[in-house]
């Protein structure tokens, strides 16, 4: 009787079945088995269950994609992970990491070197000794992945061409170490924050504005949208700046001091970590603290959406967590081992 129904009705029925039930049902009839291998069925299930859109490149591959995401989700929930360290690591503490494309990562260290890694194979692609006179404290890749900027304790930023890692410029303006850098969506404008209490907006290698207002080290800066950045300082203030005018928009207060910041533009929220060990959630429009979540007992230094030494930076992808620290090593927690490669 079921097989006598119009195919559109069958599509709707199997859509509401869980995967194990769908597998059992498909094994009972050739028509249902054909439906089981229908790519459109798995496209609908994938978009519904994982709230993710796919591109034309994934046509005829949605069953495999659904399988990978199901296994990956289960591993995240259960903590099933393969752990290993990236070989040929740095010679000193690793301070920063950033994604480069879908499958690569760049790390920076107190040893003044940059390293380019291929994540699926954990192989080191390139080591670049920088001309910085101090530690590489921060780095960021442009939206089009064509350039890299590094910030150092020597108070300078260096621009690099990617993927060649060729030096193309130096930004000088800060009086003390550069603690964080970020690119605006246009890919031509960079914002740097420093221990000298200031932020500088650079456009095509030239200083546009120097943002004054903090009275402590500006530990972190992140893009909120095309016109605004958020800065977090040890002076207990969080400021939202208009990068077109240089004006400060908001400054919520945190009595413990801010060490890091992340933004959630879709929800209009800002997440902060600081010396008081609490995760703060702030509303952009009102500047009010929506929640203060305890849990840590010391400084929160790094956050991302989703031992025996200090962990100085964490990088999260869809299937991996990478942590880097004072022990000179980069540790990879791989939730996607033995799966077909996923677009991350």
UniProtKB/TrEMBL annotation:
Keywords: Repeat, WD repeat. InterPro entries: F-box-like_dom_sf, F-box_dom, WD40/YVTN_repeat-like_dom_sf, WD40_PAC1, WD40_repeat_CS, WD40_repeat_dom_sf, WD40_rpt. Residues 1-45 form the F-box domain. One of its GO terms (cellular component) is transferase complex. CDD domains: WD40 (cd00200). WD repeats lie at residues 87-127, 129-170, 171-202, 211-251. Coiled coil: none annotated. PANTHER family: F-BOX_WD REPEAT-CONTAINING PROTEIN 7, WD40 REPEAT PROTEIN. This is WD40 repeat-like protein. It comes from Hesseltinella vesiculosa. The lineage of its organism: Eukaryota, Fungi, Fungi incertae sedis, Mucoromycota, Mucoromycotina.
